[in-house]
Amino acid sequence: MRNSIISAAIALLVAAGLGAAQPTPALAQGVPEVIKARVNEMVGQCARAGGTLGAMSGQGRFVIPADFTGDGRTDFLVSEGNFPCTGKPNLFRPDGLAKVQLYVGTGDGATLAFEDRLLAYRVLDGKPARLQIARRGPACGATRCGDELRWNSAAKRFDEHATDGRQMAARPAAGAALAQVDAVPAAATASAASIAVPPVKSDAEAQMKAACRKKTLAESGQQAARWVDGACADNWKRVIAAQPLAEALLTAHGAGVGPVDGLRRAMPKMRWNPRAEQGELASGRIGPYEAALLGAGARADRFMLSWSAIGAEIPVDLPGALQARGATLLLTHCEKLGAGEGARAWQVTMPGRAPFELLISERTAPTGDAWSFWSAEARLDSRPARKGPTRCDPFW
Questions:
Q1: Residue 182, SS3?
Q2: Distance, CA of 223 to CA of 203 (rounded, Å)
Q3: CA distance 279 to 292
Q4: Do residues 68 and 82 touch, judged by C-beta distance below 8 A?
Q5: Helix or strand or coil: residue 101?
Q6: Could you write out the DSSP letters of every residue in 299-362?
């Protein structure tokens, strides 16, 4: 059944070339395998979450073929936020942002040339077509910003041009010039042995249970005295369960932005898959948790963990696990999307390390037959944490 759904999706995608935002080169060569794989991936994610593929027209048109470079070849824009997953409309926008990718046609396939999580986008008619995007958070230095991607034929990449009045020169777009990324010799990459990961502090359990007890009694009153110790003990179990994830995250952050092969070598405790999933530089697992290195070209700048299950409570407290190792977390953004669903971002500071952003998106199943999901994304660079409203404590 799933294969027939994917085949139908690909057939509609080919037909969509006739109704693109502007006249596009005929899809005589068919849809590249990398685009088919992306369709396959999203169909599978939707099905695993309990959704079904909806109408792939109008707002449900998630793949747009157009000539974005002006070379006469068909390029492909893929927007996860437009994927029509009926029954799970927010599956691909857990924090109000959605991944948009731009693949450049190569004649016999397509190469990823841009990828980012965006507020919105639109395709402008022209020869070539142009992509306008809207971002928020640290990418802007403001609440919201706008840019336009234009092909730089001399540099063989897309450049971003500000469209919102910001006084800044054009600069390479995220994921631009993928083939020009220089490889770093393995000897220059940090090894696992050289990356110091702080252990769990000896007094962490006592301190965190005491803080939990104090906070709970202050919020719920003395009637909570009957059950507060048990609740705080359960919280500590979630902190302990998250320690392997915290160790992997801190190892990745200690290695820093760099070639994906070097980061893989620096994380030997990971069970890396032979091949990366589409949209990821490396894919693997830590127990029941999926893990991935994300970035552009062969350079990884983010480490991601994810988990999902039907009718289950989220089993880990990753912020707590980092605090137990001496981290200080400053909440910089909190967004509630529904009952038990939302996203939070922190600026995480570890002694002796540069601060980094941790973004967690989660949803606790409202009923026993619904899906719970959790994902954590840590930046490996020093980019400031996104900022926004932080008053959504009642959600948690």
A1: coil
A2: 28
A3: 10
A4: no
A5: strand
A6: EEEEEEEEEEEES------HHHHHHHTT-EEEEEEEEEEETTEEEEEEEEE-TTS--EEEEEEE
Task: State the DSSP code for 181.
Answer: P
Burial grade of 37 (CB within 10 A; 0-12, 13-18, 19 or more): middle
What are the counts of helices (DSSP H) followed by strands (DSSP E) for the chain? 7, 20
Taking alpha carbons only, the member of 60, 73, 159 closest to residue 111 is: 73
Cα 258 versus chain centre, distance:
18
379, 324 contact by CB (below 8 A) = no
pLDDT tens-digit readout, 47-56: 888 888 888 8
Helix, coil or strand: residue 60: helix
Residue 300 buriedness (CB in 10 A; 0-12 / 13-18 / 19+): buried
Domain boundaries, the chain: 2-180, 186-395
Q: pLDDT tens digits, residue range 304-354?
A: 999 998 888 899 999 999 999 999 999 998 888 777 788 899 999 988 788
Looking at the chain, how many residues does it have? Answer: 396
Structure tokens that stand for 2 in this block: 């799933």
Q: What is the dihedral of CA 295, 173, 139, 358, to 10 degrees?
A: 0
Whether 375 and 361 have beta carbons less than 8 Å apart is answered as yes
SS3 68: coil
pLDDT score recorded for residue 122: 93
**Alpha helices, H only, the chain:** 2-16, 33-48, 204-220, 228-241, 243-255, 260-266, 318-324
Global pTM reads 0.54
- Coil vs helix vs strand at 383: coil
Q: What is the 8-class DSSP label of residue 191?
A: P
